[in-house]
Amino acid sequence: MTDRTYLDWNATAPLRESAREAVIAGLALVGNPSSVHREGRAARQVIEQARAEVAALVGADQRNVVFTSGGTEANALALSPAIEVAGDKAPCDRLLVSAIEHPSVLAGGRFARPAIASIGVDPDGVVDLDALERELAKGQRALVSLMLANNETGVVQPAAAAAEIVHRHGGLLHVDAVQAAGRIPIDIKALGADLLTLSAHKLGGPKGVGALIRRDEAIHIADPLIRGGGQERGSRAGTENVSGIMGFGAAAAAARAGLAAERSHMLALRERLETGLRALTPDAVIFGAKSERLPNTTLVALRGLKAETLVIAFDLEGVALSSGAACSSGKVAPSHVLAAMGVEPALARGAIRVSLGPTTTSAEVDCFLEIWRKLVETLSVSEKRGLAA
Ligand code: PLP
């Protein structure tokens, strides 16, 4: 990988060294964490250590962390009409989600389609809190799911203000903090989120492990997704992914210890990147630029250029990045995030996402800019030729 420049950290982050060591140590553990013998207790102990590390990353109590197979499962677990608070069994009748959520939230969990409503965002990519309040004022008890930061634009959402509105109307708030964790400080209590989702692989842990975190013990999801042996206090059955959880714990500890330094490092590089983009291509549009954004994310488009072409061309030049559009089953679909922001489809089709990490270097940013300069020249010429033909 040494000749490669990896600028796709929002898709997944490279494993941190301490997480790699923890995963390997975990693979050597023999016991099942549910067993009462010494081997079992040793496996239980490392899981509880990791639980404490993950809880500390978001200011939560260790007892309130439920390990899952990733962010997708944690989101699916959270989106339930049967969330009890202090024993109150009144169900949530509706699910309100912002229009820019990850597909695992847009899928709606255990809510029936007609019970789900979408809340729009403004052209800068920020959720419309007035629209949220109007929906909540309709009266039925709602669970609201709002991401802390968007995976495509990096735009940070006003989750604490949303929590205040949601609670005033007797609702509950779930916050998908998968992209925000390790990049901006998170305190579940200060945010006022009732439930919060994390994923290990976005902060330098292994893929396939995540967590759903409750603000306090009074919150209880009465219909867990996976039932069986009663692991995770009945919230998620199945023998725990011991080595994955250990890697998650190590990554969370490293992310928390390094947060301030990593954040300013990434922010300085993003400034360098965006200053360079604006100098080379003054017409380039950086989405959400007027909003508070994650320190590591730039979603940019230049009219007339197609994202698929750029992503492939960058890959051939040794640079890994993403298009802003979702690509599944070989089809590139226009970004629902940019559509919700009202970006015209012709411009949205050109959006590429450059996402940086704590080990990204200024040389890598300069390498991106140099290739961007070359590609914009050659692709624009061929585009014009195509139009003339
Ligand atoms: N939520 C957001 C905002 C994400 O960006 C992602 C992954 O891209 C997920 C949830 C899903 O997490 P995982 O890949 O762990 O299932």
Question: Please, could you describe this protein's structure?
Answer:
The strands form 5 sheets. The chain has a 7-stranded mixed sheet with strand order 2-9-8-7-6-4-5, with helices on both faces. A 4-stranded antiparallel sheet has the order 11-12-17-14, with helices on one face. A hairpin with a 2-residue loop joins strand 15 and strand 16. Helix content is 39%, strand content 16%. It folds into 2 domains: 5-13 and 259-382, Aspartate Aminotransferase, domain 1 (Alpha-Beta Complex); 17-253, Type I PLP-dependent aspartate aminotransferase-like (Major domain) (Aspartate Aminotransferase, domain 2). By secondary structure, it is of the alpha/beta class. The site of pyridoxal-5'-phosphate has 14 residues, from helix 3.
Which helices and strands occur, and which strands form pairs?
Blueprint lengths: L4 E2 L10 H11 L10 H20 L7 E4 L2 H8 L4 E3 L8 E5 L4 H4 L9 E4 L9 H8 L5 E6 L11 H10 L3 E5 L11 H4 L3 E5 L10 E5 L4 E3 L20 H39 L4 E2 L10 E5 L5 H10 L2 E2 L1 E2 L2 E3 L2 E3 L2 H5 L4 H4 L3 E4 L6 H27 L1
Parallel strand pairs: 1-13, 4-5, 4-6, 6-7, 7-8
Antiparallel strand pairs: 2-9, 3-10, 8-9, 11-12, 12-17, 14-17, 15-16
Helix pairs in contact: 1-8, 2-8, 5-6, 8-12
What's the gist of this structure?
The protein is of the alpha/beta class and 389 residues long. The protein is built from twelve helices and 17 strands.
Walk across the major sheet and give the strand order: 2-9-8-7-6-4-5
Helical segment count: 12
* CATH class label of the largest domain: Alpha Beta
Estimated helix fraction: 25-40%
Hetero compounds: pyridoxal-5'-phosphate
Largest sheet properties: 7 strands, mixed
The helix/strand series, from N terminus to C terminus, equals: EHHEHEEHEHEHEHEEEHEEHEEEEHHEH
Q: Give the low-pLDDT segments.
A: none
Overall mean confidence score, pLDDT: 95
Oligomer: single chain
Indicate the CATH architecture of the largest domain. Answer: 3-Layer(aba) Sandwich
The dominant shape is globular
Assign the CATH superfamily of the largest domain.
Answer: Type I PLP-dependent aspartate aminotransferase-like (Major domain)
Radius of gyration (CA) equals: 22 Å
* Whole-number count of domains: 2
Query: What is the number of E strands?
Result: 17
Kindly name the structural category: alpha/beta
Query: In angstroms, what separates the terminal alpha carbons?
Result: 40 Å
The percent range for strand residues is 15-25%
CATH topology of the largest domain: Aspartate Aminotransferase, domain 2
